[in-house]
Structures are given as C-alpha cells and as structure tokens.
Amino acid sequence: MIDRTLTDSIVVYSTVWCPDCKRAKRFFGEQRVPYVNIDIEQDPAAMAFVQQINHGKRIIPTIVFPDGSILVEPSNAELAAKLGLQTKAQRSFYDAIVIGGGPAGLTAALYMAREGLDTLVIEKAGLGGQAGITQTLDNFPGFDEGISGTEFAERLGRQARRFGVEILQAQTVTNIGREGPYLSITTGDGSSYGTKAGLLATGARYRTLGVPGEEELIGINIHFCATCDGAFYKGKKVLVVGGGNSGLEEGLFLTKFANQVDIVEFQPHLKAYSGPRNLYSQTVRLL
Q1: Does domain 93-200 have CATH number 3.30.2130.10?
Q2: Prediction pTM value
Q3: The CATH number of 214-286 is which of 3.30.460.40, 3.50.50.60, 3.30.420.10, 2.50.20.20?
Q4: Could you give the residue numbers annotated as active site?
C-alpha cells in the first residue's frame, strides 16, 4: 500500500545502483520538480508494493504520481509528457531561436518577441538557469526585499510567454547546421527547426571534483542543488565543498534539514564576499 502521507508528492521507488532511477531523479531535479525517493532495498513494504504493481517483478524505477497514475521505467520524454512540458515546437521556422532558458536567454527572447519576431526558446532543464535554484536573490534591481530563485524563474517564464515567446523544456539541442541562408537546429527527439538567427545563451555548468566514484554517485549521495535535494538529508550530516558565495548559501540552507553541515574550502580563506558573518552555529562548521 502507498503511504497516504505521500499521495501529494511524486514518489520514486528506486535503488542506489539503478542507472534508470538515477536518470529519472536527475530529470526531476533538473526540472525542479520535488519528489520523494524510497529505496526499496531498505523498505520491505516498498519492495512488496513494487512487486505488486509489476506482477511480481522488481522493476525500477516505479514512479507514482499524485493523481494515482504510475509510470514504470519511463523515458525522459514520457516524464516530460506526464509533467505537461512542451518538448515539440508548434512550427518549423522561427525568426529567432534562443538556446538556453536562463535569465539572459529569456530576457533576449522577450525583447525580440516584443519587436514582433517569432521567437523560440529551447531549454533542457528548468527555466531560470542557476538563478532559478538560488534560495534568495537580494541584488537584482526592482526586488527591494529580495525574491526566491524559484519565483524569479517562474516570473521570467510567464513574462516571456506573455509576449508570445514559445518555450520548449526538457529538450536538448544536438546539432546546429546551415540550410542555405538559414540555420537548422536539431533537437534530441530528431526534430529540426529553421531560423534566421540563433542565440546561444547556454549559461554555466556545475563544477565537479573529478575524483573517483563521483560520477556514479551524482544524484544519489552527491548533489548540486540544496533546494532540490536537501530534504533527503533531514537529521543527517552533510558536507559542502567550496567556501564561495554559493557554498555558504547552500550550507546555510541545508541547516534547515541536516543536524550538521561541514563546509570545506581548500584556500586559506573563504572566497565568499560576505565572509563568515552570521554563519557560525551549532549546525555549521568550517573546515
């Protein structure tokens, strides 16, 4: 039976070694969709539930949605369809195509759309880029009391769509080529879209440590977004690598869940502009 306290959440039944489980959880994380993860090897009732759903087979990931529907070993395309994300454009040609749905890409798109240009934005993850996963934006003009990254990203998306920008999500760009005087942009599902101009606004990528075992643990025990995954570590000890602005901000946010947060910085001094002010507590330690 499903725990009735979980019915308002997406529940992912998985194991730590399952690559498809890791992919599905990474997809939810990229799209900033909250979910509850249950390791069936640590929960006999969950194991029995998965076997019941799959006619005696232990097939994972088995994902239960708040409406009661269930997807078993879904592809990213199936997950995107279930979440109602638009992954295919309505037309085959646009005046301009923006690759990247962060603040720069969406701002450029809405300005072009206001000028009457048919504009398409293609984004593989959640709108708003890394700004969208920031706990609070305090230095953005016009928000004198600050604004959460999530709300900021949602406002950007709504504003762009209000001016007629078409936005694809959970979609990657695999090739950019030429067809006569136009550009041809191909997406991960094999679709091709023509355009007069393409704008690359692909933003930044998360930095990794490059240590053995890191790749296998990403999405399991290694994460890049405290807002997305911090709740998994309620009552536990966590380690934040990096003493810059992002590291300290994520560390402070994690104190809402973890019993202890250790922040490691390889340089002699913290790189964060604000320094350790208001950081020290019974929960946070600087190493």
Answers
A1: no
A2: 0.70
A3: 3.50.50.60
A4: 225, 228-229
